[in-house]
């Protein structure tokens, strides 16, 4: 029996430099992307975070205990495409041993590489 593909939830199209990389490099994963050019709603995020192994979010997306409870224990990484991370409860992530990354160079190639590093540094994504 094969194991289900890890799910990556992306709360917004993260740009022409990063989205093609994400979709091509991780084509063997289930990738769920918010389809609109505006922030996703909390309900959409809560619904789609269920069962996710990774969340790629923006500053408009609040990551707190309630969302992490909904996502479930298989969530191993959260990466925000933003310079700041006030919208993320990093203490709660640490309590749950969830890796966290952010993109201080959000508008550069370094930002793209930070997202990739954060996700691929977890065992869930190394073993796939």
Automatic annotation (TrEMBL):
GO terms assigned for molecular function: glyoxylate reductase (NADPH) activity; hydroxypyruvate reductase [NAD(P)H] activity; NAD binding
Superkingdom: Eukaryota
UniProt keyword annotations, A-Z: Oxidoreductase
One GO cellular component term noted in the UniProt record for this chain: cytosol
Record domain D-isomer specific 2-hydroxyacid dehydrogenase catalytic: where: 8-110
Pfam families in the cross-refs: 2-Hacid_dh
Protein name from the UniProt record: D-isomer specific 2-hydroxyacid dehydrogenase catalytic domain-containing protein
Organism: Agrocybe chaxingu
The organism's taxonomic lineage, starting at the top: Eukaryota, Fungi, Dikarya, Basidiomycota, Agaricomycotina
């Amino acid at each position: 029996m094969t194991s289900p593909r890890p799910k990556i939830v992306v709360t917004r199209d993260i740009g022409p430099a990063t989205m093609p990389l994400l979709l091509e490099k991780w084509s063997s994963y289930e990738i769920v992307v918010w389809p609109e050019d505006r922030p996703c709603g909390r309900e959409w995020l809560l619904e789609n975070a269920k069962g996710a192994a990774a969340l790629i979010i923006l500053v408009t997306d609040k990551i707190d205990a309630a969302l992490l409870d909904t996502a479930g224990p298989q969530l191993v990484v959260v990466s925000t495409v933003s310079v700041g991370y006030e919208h993320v409860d990093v203490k709660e992530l640490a309590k749950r041993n969830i890796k966290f990354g952010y993109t201080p160079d959000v508008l550069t190639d370094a930002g793209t590489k930070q997202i990739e590093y954060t996700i691929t540094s977890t065992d869930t994504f190394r073993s796939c």
